[in-house]
Amino acid sequence: DGKKKKNEVGFNSKVSIKKEGDSDVHEYTIVGSEEADMRVKKLSHVSPLGAALMGKKKGDMFTFSTPNGKQTYTIEKVA
């Protein structure tokens, strides 16, 4: 029906995530690849992190691969 599900990561969601073992919370907005700009925390939905976030909910843990190996994060907030 095209409606965004509440508390589920999708386009234009503001997502706060925390890396396992770290106290810093990082906030990103999920956008299309044309709008992506890491300087202003706009994350493409097709980037490794953006793709890993899509469809997840607050409290979900997820792991994705980075050049430094696998990273595990927890979703703190979805707005």
What does this structure look like?
By secondary structure, this protein is mainly beta. The chain has one helix at residues 48-53, and strands at residues 14-19, 25-31, 42-44, 61-66, 69-78. The protein has a 5-stranded mixed beta sheet with strand order 3-2-1-5-4. The mean pLDDT is 92.
Task: Based on the model shown, name its key terms.
single chain, 41% strand
Beta percentage is 35-45%
N- to C-terminal distance: 20 Å
Strand order in the sheet with the most strands: 3-2-1-5-4
Strand runs, count: 5
Helix and strand composition category: mainly beta
Global geometry: globular
Count of helix runs: 1
Q: How would a crystallographer describe the biggest sheet?
A: 5 strands, mixed
Whole-angstrom Rg: 12 Å
In helices, the fraction of residues equals under 10%
Sketch the topology as an H/E string, one letter per element.
EEEHEE
Mean pLDDT: 92
Contiguous low-pLDDT stretches (5 residues minimum) are none
Topology summary:
Layout: E1 14-19, E2 25-31, E3 42-44, H1 48-53, E4 61-66, E5 69-78
Parallel strand pairs: 2-3
Antiparallel strand pairs: 1-2, 1-5, 4-5
Short description:
By secondary structure, this protein is mainly β. Helices cover 8% and strands 41% of the residues. It has one helix spanning 48-53, and strands spanning 14-19, 25-31, 42-44, 61-66, 69-78.
